[in-house]
C-alpha cells in the first residue's frame, strides 16, 4: 500500500513538473541534462529524449560557459541558491519570444534560479535550473524607461529646432563658467541672429519662417562638435557655447557657420528662399565676474554686426 502511495505521489509530482509555466532543468555535476520539462521542450524545440544525458553547453553554445560554471560552482560550494536577472543578462537560453507583444521583443527575457540538489547522503550531486519568462515585465520596464527619457529630452529641448532650450542651455553655460573658474580653461560663446527675419515672415508666411529657423538650427548642429552646446536663445536667435575653444577658434567656427547658411537655399512653395545671419563672438576673460557677462559681450558683438550691415561676424574686443 505504501509503495502504491509513493508511485501515485511521484506521478503527481511529474505531472506538476511538466505542467508548470516555468522552465525546469536538472543536470548532473558534469552539466549533463537529466530532467527537461515541457516548457523547455516547447521553447527550445528539443524533446527530452534528444537532450537526455547531453551536455548543456554542446546543446546551447550561446551560454557563456566560464561565467555560468563559476555561478553554479559557487552556488554548490556555498550550498545556497543563486540567481541571474534579465537586467544584468537578458537570458540564459536564447529562446524566441512568443508573448503577445508583437515586435517589441524578439527573444525571451529570463530570470534564472540555480538550486543545488543534495542526495540522501547529503552530497550535492545535481543542480536544478528554474527559468522564468519575464519578457512582459522587461518590455514594459524598457518602454517606461524610454518614455521617461523622451520626456526628459523634451523638457530640455526646443520643440521647433531640437536644439537645447534657453533654460537648459544657460545652465550648461553656468556649469562651464564654474569649470573655467576652477581650471582656467578657454571658453567661447557665439551668438547668432537671422537677418531681417520679420521681413521673411511678412513676405513668405510663418511656415517659411519656421523652415528658416529649422534650417539654421540643422546647419549649426552639423558644424558643431559633440562637446559644444547649441541652443535656441530666442525667437530667431541662437547661442553656441564652445568649451575649450579660443576666441580665434570660435571666430573661425562662426565664419564657417555664417558662410554655410549664406550658401543654403530653401524651396518654399516653388520659390527659392535664401537668408543670412549676423554673428557675435566673445570669450571668457579674467575680468568677467559672472556668466551673464559673457552673454552680454557676445550679444553686443552680434548687434555691432547688425549695425555694420548684417551677414558678418564681429568679435567682442
TrEMBL record:
<dbReference type="InterPro" id="IPR013767">
    <property type="entry name" value="PAS_fold"/>
</dbReference>
<dbReference type="Pfam" id="PF00989">
    <property type="entry name" value="PAS"/>
</dbReference>
<dbReference type="InterPro" id="IPR000014">
    <property type="entry name" value="PAS"/>
</dbReference>
<dbReference type="InterPro" id="IPR000160">
    <property type="entry name" value="GGDEF_dom"/>
</dbReference>
<dbReference type="Pfam" id="PF00990">
    <property type="entry name" value="GGDEF"/>
</dbReference>
<dbReference type="InterPro" id="IPR029787">
    <property type="entry name" value="Nucleotide_cyclase"/>
</dbReference>
<dbReference type="InterPro" id="IPR035965">
    <property type="entry name" value="PAS-like_dom_sf"/>
</dbReference>
<protein>
    <recommendedName>
        <fullName>diguanylate cyclase</fullName>
        <ecNumber>2.7.7.65</ecNumber>
    </recommendedName>
</protein>
<dbReference type="InterPro" id="IPR050469">
    <property type="entry name" value="Diguanylate_Cyclase"/>
</dbReference>
<feature type="domain" description="GGDEF">
    <location>
        <begin position="185"/>
        <end position="317"/>
    </location>
</feature>
<dbReference type="InterPro" id="IPR043128">
    <property type="entry name" value="Rev_trsase/Diguanyl_cyclase"/>
</dbReference>
Amino acid at each position: 500500500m505504501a509503495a502504491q502511495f509513493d508511485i501515485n505521489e511521484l506521478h503527481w509530482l511529474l505531472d506538476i513538473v511538466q505542467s508548470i509555466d516555468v522552465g525546469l532543468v536538472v543536470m548532473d555535476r558534469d552539466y549533463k541534462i537529466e530532467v527537461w520539462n515541457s516548457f523547455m521542450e516547447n521553447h527550445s524545440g528539443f524533446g527530452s529524449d534528444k537532450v537526455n544525458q547531453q551536455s548543456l553547453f554542446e546543446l546551447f553554445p550561446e551560454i557563456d560557459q566560464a561565467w555560468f560554471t563559476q555561478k553554479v560552482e559557487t552556488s554548490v560550494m556555498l550550498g545556497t541558491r543563486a540567481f541571474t536577472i534579465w537586467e544584468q543578462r537578458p537570458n540564459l537560453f536564447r529562446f524566441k519570444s512568443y508573448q503577445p507583444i508583437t515586435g517589441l521583443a524578439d527573444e525571451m527575457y529570463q530570470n534564472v534560479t540555480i538550486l543545488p540538489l543534495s542526495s540522501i547522503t547529503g552530497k550535492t550531486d545535481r543542480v536544478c535550473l528554474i527559468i522564468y519568462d519575464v519578457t512582459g515585465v522587461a518590455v514594459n520596464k524598457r518602454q517606461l524607461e524610454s518614455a521617461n527619457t523622451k520626456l526628459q529630452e523634451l523638457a530640455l529641448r526646443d520643440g521647433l529646432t531640437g536644439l537645447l532650450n534657453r533654460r537648459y542651455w544657460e545652465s550648461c553655460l553656468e556649469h562651464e563658467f564654474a569649470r573655467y573658474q576652477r581650471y582656467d580653461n578657454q571658453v567661447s560663446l557665439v551668438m547668432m541672429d537671422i537677418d531681417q527675419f520679420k521681413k521673411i515672415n511678412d513676405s513668405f508666411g510663418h511656415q517659411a519662417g519656421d523652415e528658416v529657423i529649422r534650417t539654421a538650427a540643422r546647419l549649426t548642429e552639423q558644424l558643431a562638435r559633440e562637446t559644444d552646446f547649441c541652443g535656441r536663445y530666442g525667437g530667431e536667435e541662437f547661442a553656441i557655447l564652445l568649451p575649450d575653444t579660443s576666441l580665434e577658434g570660435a571666430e573661425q567656427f562662426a565664419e564657417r557657420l555664417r558662410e554655410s547658411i549664406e550658401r543654403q537655399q530653401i524651396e518654399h512653395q516653388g520659390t527659392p528662399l535664401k537668408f543670412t545671419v549676423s554673428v557675435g563672438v566673445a570669450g571668457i576673460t579674467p575680468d568677467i565676474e559672472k556668466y551673464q557677462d559673457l552673454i552680454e559681450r557676445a550679444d553686443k558683438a552680434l548687434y555691432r554686426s547688425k549695425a555694420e550691415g548684417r551677414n558678418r561676424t564681429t568679435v567682442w574686443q
